Amino acid sequence: MAHVSIIGTGNMGQAVAGVVSRSGNSVELLGRSDAHRAVTGDVVVLAVPYGAVAEVIDQRRDQLTGKVVVDITNPVDFETFDSLVVPADGSAAAEIAAALPQSRVLKAFNTTFAATLASGTVGGEQPTTVLIAGDDADAKSLLAGIVSGAGLRAIDAGSLRRARELEALGFHQITLAAGEKIAWTAGFALVA
Amino acid sequence: MAHVSIIGTGNMGQAVAGVVSRSGNSVELLGRSDAHRAVTGDVVVLAVPYGAVAEVIDQRRDQLTGKVVVDITNPVDFETFDSLVVPADGSAAAEIAAALPQSRVLKAFNTTFAATLASGTVGGEQPTTVLIAGDDADAKSLLAGIVSGAGLRAIDAGSLRRARELEALGFHQITLAAGEKIAWTAGFALVA
């Protein structure tokens, strides 16, 4: 059984916590008032907005050594809604991996809206697929097992460099939902 | 009724020609041996590999003035399969628009495999959605009408800047199919 720490109690943090619970693994959910509590999970999900990630890393760098760290962020420029705020040839995941060289960083959950994680379906029509990118095969397998244990589909999306494409996909999906082209309960479904 | 010229007779050119025909619009399909024939369509689809686009533009620049030009390319670096060959902050569509300032350039059909355009479904499970990005609303409406007339879904994906995200999505979908995570008859379906 895996033990998962989730930092961030917003809708995404709660949705990922629900996935972990449904898969029969144990979960701790840490909010702002828990900054003094060390994370105890083997897997740590950074479920805070992109702009808050650096502070979390500063606070918890030592605690994250040797752990699987999951970046779920969509680093959208919410002022212009026209680009990401990370370098065009990089990704938030690449930045986090550079900041945490002793951790095994994965990108996941950024292409699934909270509602699709909770319901297990995209718009009630297709099973929800969690795309997982990363450079450590064992870490990806561990997270994939948690995801599939909750009844969702997990797909190995390739190396951590693919986080760039996952962030583009997440951004585009957000623009489509914000523009009312799709519902926040729906989005891109991956048909195999 | 629209008249559509398709430059390129490969599997994507043929698939887009099928869409145009099914929608009741007229289509001409031009191959390599037709370089001397001027395009007659109001809409011109560049259905050649990214590496061949510059030559087509050189040959046909004057013919493309005033027309709706549709870029369907996925400018993947097929040597490394690890990035696109266009600048990270740009897109093939942006390059084509810069080269054809007298045309109305759209990005479309790059996130749909040929088989999904032909069958009208993603893996037999969801209707095929064509994402259309561009800066000219009338041009987008014209193409959306052709697509929906063929029984497919058309979605306005935003300004031509969104071509960057559509090319990331197309690239990622190709890596998933090449890695046998999904079939070439399936891929990302958009659930509204």
Write up what this structure looks like.
2 copies of one chain form a homodimer. By secondary structure, chain A is α/β, with parallel strands linked by helices. Chain A has one domain (3-178): NAD(P)-binding Rossmann-like Domain (Rossmann fold, 3-Layer(aba) Sandwich), CATH 3.40.50. Chain A is built from 6 helices and 10 strands. A 7-stranded mixed sheet of chain A has the order 2-1-3-4-5-8-9, sandwiched between helices. In chain A, strands 6-7 form a two-stranded antiparallel sheet. Chains A and B meet through strand 9, helix 6 and strand 10 of A and strand 9, helix 6 and strand 10 of B.
Topology:
The structure is a homodimer of 192-residue chains.
Chain A: E1 3-7, H1 11-22, E2 26-30, E3 43-46, H2 50-60, E4 68-71, H3 92-99, E5 104-107, H4 114-119, E6 121-122, E7 126-127, E8 129-134, H5 137-149, E9 153-158, H6 163-178, E10 187-191
